[in-house]
Write a structure and sequence with these properties.
This protein has 657 residues and is of the alpha+beta class. The protein has 19 helices and 35 strands. The strands form nine sheets. Strands 7, 8, 9, 11, 12, 13, 15 and 16 form an eight-stranded antiparallel sheet that branches. The N terminus is likely disordered.
């Protein structure tokens, strides 16, 4: 058993040094200026990767019994290489045997620099070539070539091996990689290669420690008395003791009880470090290599990814449309099918192929993640590439899809945010991060641009979308005002009904409220109109309306049915209701009930007369005597006073308010 968390553990339980208990033993956490890197040892089996790692670090990374017996690396091995105030470097020793290629890919997926190990007595071998292809596809550009076991051959043979290696590296990203001659037993060249590693990494940028934390798990085990421990390379971000995390794609919530970096307790772990995390809230049986520990909901879980791939230089077999493939991404291995949109097979291809992977299981990934593709049978590496969009969809075969994928591929963060908002119209920050696969810090910076608008405190849209909606509303209202000049405006629900098919309702509400604030629109009750609009009688009916009002005014308190006035004025039935509502809104008439109305000034004068000839309260009979009205008009008039809040009926009396 490996003692990662050392409480109650003895030296016999672990091949590594034990540390004292208690918080006082915690390693001092470096400032954010300190940089963390992980390098990898790659190459053919038995070329001396593990021996070189031991010579550099004094740690034997072959810790399993089977590894000792067979003298080959089966699982990933890890060791601390170097640390000072500015830099910390870890080493991953990856298996070289072809049977353990999954472990190799899982190991190198998180490294910042590779040491390609080639034995002087054998030269470049098949696994060396495959490892080179894998490193190329994973986008690892910094490399050092270590020619090992130099004491076994003479100088002339070493020169032949150099030429052999140069021939293999020519035209690759490692074409200019420096060579170091080493012998792990005699320690020749060991200090030289160590200093070269340090110098190279001091000139290299570290991984993003500001983004959300992500650690693909490459080992899961338990420690007696401590529980479940996961280990891996921190791809990005920072994790702290006590932090709540999630295991994806399973969605399990856990807490980081303790953290260790190279078997030393640490309050934090940073991007680029090898870390072991003691998790509470989960058992070992719940987890497996390939799961990912994250601190954010922004990472996407998916089964369809749009990708850009390259194939190996010499394909032994055709890659056919919808052929089963094995995807290696991070520490995850999952089966799926490759889907092309511009071809049905690949024989040979020098450039990138834009296509899609449809997977049998969900994975967690983001834009820019690198991966390897292998054929399940016969087993071989066929290519690799990077994720364009983790939220792939099912597209049609043809050039149009390729053109869309090309746009996705080359788009800048701003262009991708804009494209997402043009499609969805409105998105929260979480939704934006998931749709665009852009880091939270980067996207937050981009959203400061004036082209993006935050509304309701949580939703983003584009300025151009707001302007477009506002222009559409202006056009709709102008047309409505022309056709219905008598109406105060359009009922808001009616105005937005058809637009809600294209835009979220909360966005439409925002545009209207924003327009009201900027005096583009105005609102009266539930009705919305243009700010400058004033309801009016259509010119063609203005004279007839004046005549109708004059007749109504002339009849004073002894009015006929209101409909009779409209008929006498020659106003058609289809205009009557709108005109009646308009005249009432303008105060030109006051409806007593559904049938009778008074001219506005007549009504107001009548109210003044009644108030002036009564006390604080009065009865119906008293009002009849003062106004000289019959019950036909008196009761509707008094009820209208009640409705307007001018009076209040108390039993058989009216009380002035």
């Amino acid at each position: 058993m490996i003692c990662i968390f050392i409480k109650n553990c003895s030296l016999e339980q672990s091949p590594y040094k034990s540390y004292s208990k208690g918080r006082s033993s915690l390693k001092k956490v470096a400032s954010l200026e300190k940089r963390y890197f992980t390098i990898g040892m790659a190459g053919h089996i038995d070329h001396g990767k593990t021996s070189l790692t031991k010579a550099l670090t004094n740690v034997d990374t072959d810790r399993l019994k089977e590894e000792k017996e067979r003298q080959i690396s089966i699982e990933l091995g890890f060791a601390p290489l170097y640390e000072d105030a500015e830099l910390q470097i870890s080493v991953i020793d990856v298996p070289g045997h072809e049977r353990f290629i999954r472990q190799m890919i899982a190991g190198v997926a998180g490294i910042d620099l590779v040491v390609l190990v080639v034995a002087a007595d054998e030269g470049v071998m098949p696994q060396t070539r495959e490892h080179l292809e894998i490193l190329k596809f994973l986008g690892i550009k910094n490399g050092i070539v270590a020619i090992t076991k130099i004491d076994r051959v003479d100088e002339e043979f070493i020169e032949l091996v150099k030429d052999d290696i140069l021939g293999e590296l020519d035209g690759t990203v490692f074409g200019d990689a420096p060579f170091v001659l080493v012998d792990s037993l005699s320690k020749k060249g060991i200090e030289e290669i160590k200093q070269l590693i340090i110098k190279t990494l001091k000139e290299q940028e570290m991984r993003d420690a500001k983004g959300a934390f992500r650690l693909p798990i490459d080992q899961v085990f338990t420690v007696k008395g401590q529980g479940t421990v996961v280990r891996g390379t921190v791809y990005e971000g920072t994790v702290e003791e006590g932090q709540t995390l999630k295991i994806m794609p399973k969605g399990l919530e856990v807490r980081a009880r303790q953290i260790q970096v190279h078997h030393q307790p640490s309050a934090k772990a940073y991007a680029g470090q090898r870390a072991a995390i003691n998790l509470s809230g989960v058992s070992k049986d719940d987890l497996e290599r390939g799961d990912v520990v994250v601190s954010s909901e922004h990472f996407i879980v998916t089964k369809i990814i749009d990708v850009a791939i390259r194939v190996v230089d010499e394909l032994e077999h055709l890659i056919k449309q919808r052929m089963p493939v094995k995807l290696h991404i991070g520490t995850t291995e999952v089966m799926g099918r490759i889907v092309f949109f511009d071809r049905n097979e690949v024989k040979a291809e020098n450039g990138e192929i834009l296509c899609q992977l449809r997977l049998e299981e969900e994975i967690l990934t983001k834009r820019g993640d690198r991966f390897i593709l292998r054929r399940p049978s016969p087993q071989e590496t066929i290519g690799g590439g990077w994720v364009i969009d983790p939220r792939g969809d099912k597209y049609r075969f043809g050039n149009q899809t390729i053109e869309e994928l090309e746009k996705k591929k080359v788009g800048s963060p701003k262009e991708r945010i804009t494209a997402a908002l043009l499609e969805a119209k409105s998105l929260s920050l979480d939704e934006l991060i998931k749709r665009t696969a852009i880091d939270e810090a980067v996207i937050a910076d981009q959203l400061l641009d004036g082209e993006f608008v935050l509304y309701n405190g949580k939703e983003y849209t584009l300025r151009v979308i707001i302007d477009s909606i506002e222009e559409d509303l202006i056009d709709r209202l102008q047309e409505f005002h022309l056709q219905h000049s008598l109406k105060a405006g359009v009922n808001k629900a009616e105005l937005l009904q058809t637009m809600q098919k294209k835009f979220p309702k909360n966005l439409l509400d925002y545009v209207i409220e924003n327009g009201i604030a900027n005096q583009v629109f105005k609102r009266k009750g539930q009705f919305v109109s243009l700010a400058e609009f004033i309801p009016h009688v259509p010119k063609s009916w203005a004279k007839r309306t004046e005549n109708m009002l004059a007749d109504l005014k002339k009849d004073d308190l002894k009015v006929r049915y209101l409909k009779d006035y409209f008929t006498a004025a020659g106003i058609p039935d289809q205009l009557e209701m709108d005109l009646r509502r308009f005249l009432e809104d303008q105060g030109l008439i006051v409806m007593l009930d559904d049938q009778f109305a008074y001219f506005g000034d007549v009504f107001n004068e009548t109210v003044t007369k009644l108030r002036g000839n009564t006390g604080s309260e009065f009865e119906v009979g008293e009002a009849k005597d003062i106004l000289g009205l019959s019950r036909k008009y008196m009761i509707p008039f008094l009820e209208r006073l009640d409705a307007k809040g001018l009076t209040k009926r108390v039993e058989n009396k009216r009380v002035w308010q």
